[in-house]
Structure formats: structure tokens, C-alpha cells
Specification:
The protein is of the alpha/beta class. The chain is about 25% helix and about 25% strand. Strand 11 and strand 12 form a beta hairpin. The chain is globular. About 35% of the residues are buried.
């Protein structure tokens, strides 16, 4: 399987808070070290997903490299990091050398860089089986991430898109993770789609049952489409606004304007997940009220909110 991943990357500390009203990490003062860590983890995570036909062992006894068949399907990643060529973390990008492709995209407004990166991805599908748009602070740990995406797209005949659950690690009492893309208001999401619990289910690899929702929050900071879907998207003008700001429009409305978006149901959230590597949501744990709400009650609450 061949996968083309495009990552918009922009890093500039903006001392004027009014220039960063949405609090984007790429512009936050004093965030360059954290951004460097997040970008490095993002790229290392992707490269770690690659699978080749062989594995090797350092044979210390005989001072040689032993080759063995990997006995797993190959996964080849083509990673493009898209920037304006100036506001970027070269100290990180230089570490990856030829393992990534650096693409310079010129825009009149740096806020449009995510949209330019999205356009570059859709218009340069080449021979890839899957295309992924990925924000530069997201980390994939699941070695089967792209296998699950391809399985879902094949099973739904390329008529839907599947978004992962985005989380931040938390070490606070009994809390382990914070899922950061919780339900949006029915008035907002209703402009784009109608959420539905348990809209579909499937048996992954014939043994893992997974339920999927037409999600009440389709944003995940990324999207994955098949070659067929990329071809369909390339035939019409892609949206440049309409879902919060340019960053969110690129990551979400690109597919949402054409395909219904699903996520694994809450009780199956770990089926498809990725980490938000530059955490900025978990501070809400100390400012918002808390309520114990088992999954079943969450489903009821979502339905009541939908009907209100």
C-alpha cells in the first residue's frame, strides 16, 4: 500500500496576542521548543509506520547483518512537509534529510497555507492508494492506522470518510486521556450533516467488532481519502472557508462538503486514534465543571441535545 501524506507546517512566535485570536500553537509565544518536539514526534511516528518486505538483525556473534522476511504487507509512505520556506523549524526538518520531501508553497496570507497544502495533496495523488492531510502536531501510534482506513473505505465503497479520535494524555487523578473533539452544538453541525449514533458497524479482520457514528464533531486535524475520492474531489472547486477558520476548513470541510464523516463510537474510540502532540486543551480540566457520564448516558444526552 502506498500513502501520500501532506503536512502544513508554519512556526512563528507572534508576540502580539491580537494576531493570534484563536490561540494556534504555531503562533504562540514561547512554544518553539514544544512545537519542535511535536513536529519531530509527528514525523517519527509516520516513518515508524512504514513496512518493508524484509527485516534485519545485527548478528553480533558473526559480525554480519542477517535478513529475514517481514511476513507483513508493505506500507510505503511519501511524506511532504509544506511550508512557506521561511517560517519553519529547520532544526527539526534537517534531521530527516531525504526521508521527507520539503515543499514550498507561496500564499499572500500565511493563514491560507493549510488550504494550499490541501490543494497540493489532492492535485498530486500520483500512484498513492491513500492520501492523508495531517496537522504537524499530531502523532500516530497505531501501526494499523492506514490498514483500518483502507478497510473502512473499501467496505463503504468510498462513499464515507473516517476520522480518528484525537486525544491528549492526562495524568490527573483517575483521568488518563482527554478526547478533545467532543460534541458540537446541533445548530452548528446541522449545517453540514445530521449526526447519528451507531450508523454503521463492521468486523475488522473478521474478529474485532466496531461501531461507527455519523459524528457530532467531524474535526480531527486530519483526513484520509482514497485515490478514487481524491479524483472526485479534484474535479470540483474545494472549499476555502466555511468551517471555523482556514486551518479547520482544510482538515475537515474538504471532505465534509462531499462525504458524510464517521468516527468510531465512543465505546470503540481506541479503534482509530491519534495524539495531539502539542497539548492545549487539557487546561479545561481545571476550568470546566466535571460530570460522571457513562457511555450509555452520553448517548442519551447526545440524542436529547439533538432533539432539543
Amino acid at each position: 500500500m502506498r500513502v501520500h501524506v501532506c503536512i502544513p507546517h508554519y512556526a512563528r512566535e507572534e508576540k502580539d496576542a491580537s494576531a493570534n485570536p484563536d490561540g494556534y500553537g504555531s503562533l504562540r509565544v514561547g512554544s518553539q521548543f514544544q512545537r519542535s518536539l511535536a513536529l519531530s514526534r509527528c514525523l517519527h511516528g509516520l516513518l515508524g509506520l512504514q513496512r518493508q518486505a524484509e527485516m534485519t538483525v545485527l548478528n553480533i556473534q558473526h559480525k554480519r547483518i542477517d535478513h529475514f522476511p517481514a511476513n507483513q504487507p508493505s506500507l510505503e509512505l511519501n511524506i511532504s512537509v509544506c511550508s512557506d520556506g521561511e517560517h519553519q523549524l529547520n532544526n527539526v526538518l534537517d534531521l530527516f534529510g531525504q526521508r521527507i520531501q520539503r515543499v514550498e508553497l507561496q500564499t499572500d496570507d500565511p493563514r491560507q497555507l493549510p488550504l494550499a497544502c490541501r490543494d497540493h495533496l489532492i492535485n498530486n495523488a500520483s500512484d498513492a492508494d491513500l492520501m492523508m492531510y495531517l496537522e504537524d502536531d499530531l502523532v500516530i501510534h497505531d501501526p494499523a492506522f492506514f490498514d483500518k482506513q483502507r478497510w473502512f473505505l473499501d467496505k463503504t465503497e468510498h462513499r464515507f470518510c473516517l476520522m480518528p479520535h484525537r486525544y491528549e494524555p492526562v495524568h490527573q487523578g483517575a483521568i488518563n486521556q482527554l478526547l478533545v473533539d467532543g460534541p458540537l452544538s446541533p445548530q452548528f453541525i446541522g449545517r453540514f450533516m445530521q449526526p447519528q449514533r451507531d450508523a454503521a458497524q463492521g468486523l475488522y479482520r473478521g474478529q474485532e467488532e466496531v461501531h461507527f457514528d455519523l459524528t457530532s464533531n467531524p474535526h480531527s486535524g486530519c483526513f484520509v481519502v482514497s485515490a478514487q475520492q481524491a479524483e472526485e474531489l479534484s474535479q470540483k472547486e474545494l472549499p476555502r472557508e466555511g468551517f471555523v477558520g482556514p486551518l479547520e476548513t482544510a482538515a475537515t470541510l474538504t471532505v465534509l462538503h462531499r462525504y458524510p464523516v464517521m468516527k468510531p463510537s465512543l465505546e470503540h474510540w481506541k479503534f482509530l486514534q491519534l495524539e495531539h502532540g502539542h497539548p492545549n486543551f487539557r487546561s479545561y480540566l481545571n476550568s470546566w465543571s466535571h460530570q460522571d457520564l457513562p457511555v450509555a448516558q452520553q448517548q442519551t444526552a447526545d440524542q436529547e441535545l439533538k432533539e432539543s
